[in-house]
Inverse folding.
């Protein structure tokens, strides 16, 4: 078993969910090789992510309503920052 992957004579399972055959898996993209999780697992996963992240809509709404109670740290390359950024945004340039 490797990271939840189990092989049983011609069949593949991850967390007890049967995958396609090896031949079918080789033809699938990396995106669709792993079957979708249950709705319950997906809800738990994305709820946990949202507990620690925000998105551009939230930032835009806060800035547009003058509610700047956060630090906006940009970790892009200097060239990207110079092409465009929000006023008051701090930069921590990366080498990537």
């Amino acid at each position: 078993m490797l990271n939840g992957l189990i092989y049983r004579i011609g069949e593949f399972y991850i967390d007890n969910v049967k995958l396609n055959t090896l031949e079918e898996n080789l033809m699938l993209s990396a995106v669709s090789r792993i079957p979708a999780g249950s709705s319950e697992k997906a809800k738990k996963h994305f709820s946990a992510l949202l507990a620690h992240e925000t998105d551009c809509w939230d930032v835009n709404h806060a800035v547009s309503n003058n509610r700047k109670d956060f630090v906006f740290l940009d970790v892009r390359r200097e060239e990207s920052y110079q092409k465009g950024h929000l006023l008051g945004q701090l930069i921590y340039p990366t080498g990537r």
Observations:
- The radius of gyration is 21 Å.
